[in-house]
């Protein structure tokens, strides 16, 4: 996995987790849902990069 893409995926996951926690703490369901969506995007990006690594070797 390229270091840049890995870092991007981790950052997306962390941002989503923070946003979800803030939304939950403040009772803002929309923000919590956006956070979960961002985490999912980060997870998907990470899975894509891992799959690319498998086929490289």
Walkthrough of the structure:
With 57 residues, the protein is mainly α. It has 2 helices and no strands. The protein is elongated. It has helices at residues 3-26, 29-56. The mean pLDDT is 91. It starts with a helix and ends with a helix. The longest helix is centred in the last third of the chain and has 28 residues, at 29-56.
Task: Give the overall silhouette.
Answer: elongated
The percent of residues in helical segments reads: over 70%
Low-confidence stretches: none
Structural class: mainly alpha
Strand content of the residues, in percent? under 5%
Radius of gyration: 13 Å
Number of helices: 2
- Give the termini distance in whole angstroms: 11 Å
Average pLDDT figure: 91
Quick rundown:
This protein is 91% helix and 0% strand.
What key phrases describe this protein's structure?
0% strand, mainly alpha
């Amino acid at each position: 996995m390229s270091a840049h893409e890995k870092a991007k995926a981790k950052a997306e996951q962390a941002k989503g987790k923070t946003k979800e926690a803030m939304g939950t703490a403040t009772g803002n369901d929309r923000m919590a849902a956006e956070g979960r969506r961002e985490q999912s995007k980060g997870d998907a990006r990470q899975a894509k990069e891992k799959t690319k690594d498998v086929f490289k070797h």
